[in-house]
Amino acid sequence: MAMTEAAGTFRDGVHVFPVRIYFEDTDAGGIVYYANYLRFAERARTEMLRHLGIESGRLVDDLGLAFAVRQCSMDFIKPSKLDDLLMVETRLGRVGGASLRAEQRVTLDGADLVRMELKLACMSLDGRPARLPGDIRGRLENLQNSTGAT
Among residues 3, 7, 84, 102, which one has the fewest Cβ atoms lying within 10 Å of its Cβ? Predict the structure, then answer.
């Protein structure tokens, strides 16, 4: 599977996803509106999963499953502005039977702007927790093991 720069790339087991800041991303003060970092992080996680062969649409259509954010903590360190080229780095943490943990950093020129810790739950479409299918869990664990995360 070819990885294009537009969809990010893996570096040492960490998925790196570029995000350019446009007017629509900024608030009245000309800085990125805080909630947009959640959108950037969601896109980065989606592309990371796509690189692993786990496409959201197929997960829903074929298996009746989806990932939902169960917990999220964010630390806002520095603002970003119009035209900045940010990188969203996603590192998988523990992969459980029906959940996984991820750490995400949004950086500009290598400096942290936002740090996030998330717990994602695998859910059936009726909103109940569901076990990760074995092949999907295996792909996630392989990525987790390649980063040395615990």
Answer: 3
**CB of 104 closer than 8 Å to CB of 41:** yes
Structure tokens at 48: 């990371």
Long-range own/partner contacts, residues 93-100 (CB < 8 A, 24 or more apart):
93/144, 93/149, 93/150, 94/144, 94/149, 94/150, 95/132, 95/137, 95/140, 95/141, 95/144, 96/132, 97/131, 97/132, 97/137, 98/122, 98/129, 98/130, 98/131, 98/132, 99/70, 99/129, 100/132, 100/140
Nearest to 22 by CA among 64, 69, 78, 85: 85
pTM score, whole prediction: 0.90
Query: Active-site residues: which are they?
Result: 27
With a CB cutoff of 8 Å and minimum separation 6, the contacts of 103 are 90, 91, 93, 115, 116, 117, 118, 149
Q: Are 55 and 49 in contact (CB under 8 A)?
A: yes
Convert the pLDDT of each residue in 1-43 to its tens digit. 444 445 899 999 999 999 999 999 999 899 999 999 999 999 9
- Tokens linked to 150: 């615990």
